Amino acid sequence: MSEIIPAILEKNFNEIKNKLTSLREHVKCVHIDICDGVLTSSVTWPYGGGQLGGFEDSDFKKIISEEEGMPFWDDFDFEFDLMVADAVENFDLYMKLGPRRMIFHPDLGGNIEDFEQFFEGLDVYIRDNVEIGLAFKPSDDLSMVSRLSHKVDFLHCMGSDKIGFQGEKFSDQALENIKLLKKNLPGIVISVDIGINLQNAESIVVAGADRLTVGSSIWKSGDPIGVLQSFQSLV
């Protein structure tokens, strides 16, 4: 059975809290998208104005200063999708959010040696307690994905090349990539994100997805929890 992970993509921290409130007792893991306006054109909490290091949000400051934790931190395992240009440079800062999983978006068409060294140099405590995911887009070179797959805990397959937004169409190429990676990398865990709905979820699971990250299909419905439960019963 595949796991359904609700995705939250919000600019406003209060909206994140509201969605987390509604998810309590329904799921254990929640996916939170962090977009800096640099790696992606979209901007989400805790960024403002698309500036690197522009952490002016008061709630974020309280969390990283350890005055507070993420809302309901004892109820959820948080999975943070770092669609940011400074994921490596500010990794220690993002770690203060208290993640169970962290997802990185390296440039798979560029110099990946820096990411290899970063993954290899992670502290043993982090590797034992935080799962590290490698995100890739449908158009990315799968040989690069395979090269890095042995250094991470799971692969995060994006369903569209347009990342940082919800409601995009799921790519046929993404489905083929899942099948190929499952065939060539036995035992690899694959999560899938973007474009998942009740009509295509089953085929994505059959292709080999272990986790489905679902955003707009849940939140843009008239009954988020009802739709979430439909996904859970489907897969």
From TrEMBL:
Phosphoprotein among keywords? no
Question: Its Gene Ontology molecular function terms?
Answer: metal ion binding; racemase and epimerase activity, acting on carbohydrates and derivatives
- Name a single GO biological process: carbohydrate metabolic process
Q: Which InterPro entries match?
A: Aldolase_TIM, Ribul_P_3_epim-like, RibuloseP-bd_barrel
Task: Enumerate the Gene3D superfamilies for this protein.
Answer: Aldolase class I
A Pfam family that this protein carries is Ribul_P_3_epim
Classification via PANTHER family = RIBULOSE-5-PHOSPHATE-3-EPIMERASE
What keywords is this UniProt entry annotated with? Isomerase, Metal-binding
Q: What is the lineage of its organism?
A: Bacteria, Candidatus Nomuraibacteriota
Q: What is this protein called?
A: Ribulose-phosphate 3-epimerase
Highest taxon above the source species: Bacteria
Note whether Metal-binding occurs among the keywords. Answer: yes
